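Subject: mismatched residue count in predicted assembly?

I count 1060 residues in my input, but I want to confirm that the predicted structure covers every chain. Input:
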Amino acid sequence: MSKRCVMALLLAASGLAMANEPVDLDMVSRIRQEAFHNSQVMATFSHLTETIGPRLSNSPQMAEANAWTRGKFSEWGLSNVHDDAFDDFGRGWEFSAASVEMLGGRVQPLHALPKAWTPGTDGPVEGELVKVDIKTLADIEKYRGKLGGKVLLLGDAREYKRGTEPDSHRHDATSLEGLQEFTVPKTAAADRAKRVKEYGERQQLSRAVNEFFAAEGALAAISISSWDNGIIRVAGGGPRKAGEPVGIPELAMIAEHFNPLVRALDDGQTVRLRVNVAARFTDEANQPGHNTIAEIPGRGGKAGEIVMIGAHLDSWHTGTGAADNAAGVAVMMEAMRILKAVGARPERTIRVALWSGEEQGLVGSQDYVARNFAHYPEPTDPAQKALPASLREPTGPLRKLRDYERFSVYFNMDNGSGRFRGIYAQENLAAMPIFEAWLKPFHDVGATTVATRNTGSTDHIAFDRVGLPGFQFIQDRLDYFTNVHHTHLDTWDHAEPEDLKQAAAIVASFAYHAAMRDERMPRKPLLDPK
Amino acid sequence: MSKRCVMALLLAASGLAMANEPVDLDMVSRIRQEAFHNSQVMATFSHLTETIGPRLSNSPQMAEANAWTRGKFSEWGLSNVHDDAFDDFGRGWEFSAASVEMLGGRVQPLHALPKAWTPGTDGPVEGELVKVDIKTLADIEKYRGKLGGKVLLLGDAREYKRGTEPDSHRHDATSLEGLQEFTVPKTAAADRAKRVKEYGERQQLSRAVNEFFAAEGALAAISISSWDNGIIRVAGGGPRKAGEPVGIPELAMIAEHFNPLVRALDDGQTVRLRVNVAARFTDEANQPGHNTIAEIPGRGGKAGEIVMIGAHLDSWHTGTGAADNAAGVAVMMEAMRILKAVGARPERTIRVALWSGEEQGLVGSQDYVARNFAHYPEPTDPAQKALPASLREPTGPLRKLRDYERFSVYFNMDNGSGRFRGIYAQENLAAMPIFEAWLKPFHDVGATTVATRNTGSTDHIAFDRVGLPGFQFIQDRLDYFTNVHHTHLDTWDHAEPEDLKQAAAIVASFAYHAAMRDERMPRKPLLDPK
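Triage response: the counts match. Full output below for your records.
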């Protein structure tokens, strides 16, 4: 046995010994029975992905998803079911069709899909293809007067990257053991000024390029998908805020079709393309975003305290937002359904939040946390106001609202559709023996690991940033980062029903135990923002 | 060291000891210099894939490829450059665009491409989707009168298959050692009657279904791509022969879009699709196919003897026929170019053949071998005549033509674009020490292995079947059977220039040494067809 392995075992044993954390095994049994043998998680997952489809923030389909999830919560007997409006998030957008054809010597369909929040072509347009590479404002001058009526090929060819690992990955004992290592973070350089400058330059360039392409009368722009093997990985392109320059229709094309276009142009050939994108903004003015909220109210003296679970309901637009994140939503909804079905009567209130605007930077969850729990003061300087929260100068001490102290814990799911293998403790060491105790009845379904590590990039961070316990589960990766993340293949078939059932049982049990334990979840020290 | 490994080493050593096969290292050096440092293989490969594009047998692009390759051979100073017409192969076909859109509640583009030799839709058509599962002639009756104006979904959903191996594979010492094992074949059951019956039933069903769908007035039919992950793997659908019922437009759709349609119909939902396929037969009547042939004539007494190299020039229609088989064609053309460039003066004639009709069953190479070297008598019974050669009753002894005894050896490349790692000896043990000697100057570029094994499914079999030495090289598989084989991703970017250079050098050297050695290549005993 390796030294590391021995240490892991000792740690696990001592964790459990220290914990003495009560676990209601009768309740866990009821939760497991409901989750495993009476599951509705796939019905929920199927409706979200295959009836509603992709759910771009503020799109009509997102509104449909808000309404449908509210309906299910009400049907299941949850309380305080409502949409929580936030922010002047921006305009809705949707697309229904996109095609690109190479014309001329050889006529060939090329596979491309539009970037969100870029305009449609208003019917087919045809033009000569020109290569455009703008990295600075000065580069724009090279192309002035040359792009009218043209289709623009943005950037260069990318060499094919061979797949040297299997597409799909599940944890094994070794990889789980590896998660027990914590990397002491390097001291970040005091580089906020540099990052702010770069952010400002990127924003300025993007706005200038959009205005320039539109002013030139270019027909459409095409860039390369960020993954190979025919996968279209594409997020947003244009601005979602009314009044910003929307630019021209823009698409991401599979590498296997994009690279030949680059080579043809580099070879001096003339290439003509026909582009047809049916896409539209669904609002004239900015609209608020909407999170969907529902509760199982607590009973007795702790009813004012809050346990939250959640996942983001919004998705990108080319797949059906299945692993990212109908999976998380279906699991969180199912956890609430299970708790109602087994007759759970939690002491604390259990609240579920289905976030919007996650893909645009955790917008819905951050706004919700700011309005309900805590926030740093808004900057008064317009330049600071224009920056994302992570780049702003500190504005003063955290402003805690009433529910800040009534809040216990938030559990999130957003690392694809794979099975839970444990939980990241986000450096909250006092939480670890609690999680170890709660996980024990799920060791037999593969969830064994509590890691000190932080994980980021999703909605639990909105809580973590203000010092509230927010956690994300360790999940089997499956093909999240090889096939489906933000791609047109993020669809129903890449998920596993058994994984979603397992996850729902664990979330239900975690939420229940968090709602029942004597104390709220311990908190780690809040670091002052720097 | 394993026992198997020791045996392999002993075999290798004894093979070399027995061989005493002369190798002209000065010539190998010249060939390597030209192949590695003055290569034109990528220029050839690029023109075939990205200027001409896919080359379906008898399509206009195939004719363009015949013409272009003839031009290159002439430019390089080869002799006897001509197209070799064969058979009344069938009609040409081409497509330029295809789209499928889901209409109704949610409008979504679905990714599908047409099967070769199926008709176009003559503009967009819209219809309700119905599921059709016809496995026998009797099944047809279930659908009679129900398919007019409908779009047909053929077959059922298929469960997603996770990728548990890396996409791309190169041989290592272990896998090469594994190739040294030969599996003694099981005695095949005398099942020709059964196979003939099944073949007949399949043909009858296919014809009946095509006639039925057309008679019903169904708009189009959609089946599932045979691979997952958004890859469209599609070959032929309709008959290439004039006079056969062409049926209706038929497409293969990515599994991620096909399966949801099945689930929607199984759920009782109404689904409407818009289908638009621009495809056409390019001939009214059957046309011959065309192989392209060229030679470096031999000098002196052995000039009438023949060494051949080749690869198939035809491809399927949705990618650009890159790994299958512009790679093989570019390598074979480059080998001829190299031999001219280094001033090779072979004693035997070296002939290159770029086959057509390979994807339809080695048609071009079989017909060529039959007309030039040997064939079994044509059956007189029309029922036997209608069968593929492999299913016919024996018709009598092999008829050998004049050049049968003048023929030495044929080398083929058609296992994707990956690097040569050796050669399959097709159970011709007398050839093995010769190949071992010829490979030795290429050990340093990874080509080391001579395996007794047979390999099939490509044009060397046309020679092997009549007792002529025909060989196929062992190649690194790369992503041939995960991404590119017969798919829309069979494109330029999935090939490696260095692999093609290495292969061209080896083919040039093998062809040269075969043309120079005292004796023709030894032959293995010809098995009577049973």
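Confidence is low (pLDDT under 50) at residues 1-18 of chain B. Marking this ticket as 'not a bug'.
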